[in-house]
Structure prediction request, 79 residues.
Amino acid sequence: MFWFIYDQLASQLEANLRRSEREIREIEQMAEASRQKIAENERELERLLREYEEKNGLIVDLNPEDVRVVDETKLIGGA
Prediction:
């Protein structure tokens, strides 16, 4: 009887381990896809900011904390 219960528990633990390993792989794949999407979005944002600068004659200062638009004339002593 003891060995039967032991074998059942061992089988359940092995199945749980396999399921957990599969779930970890899926989460890792989702994380990688998210990192790739973030990098893609950052590149697109940079492109849009450069386009905005060119069209409007402004300098866009992008840092990790915030995005600020700086009037170029104020940087060179303008009004």
Summary: Residues 2-75 form one domain.
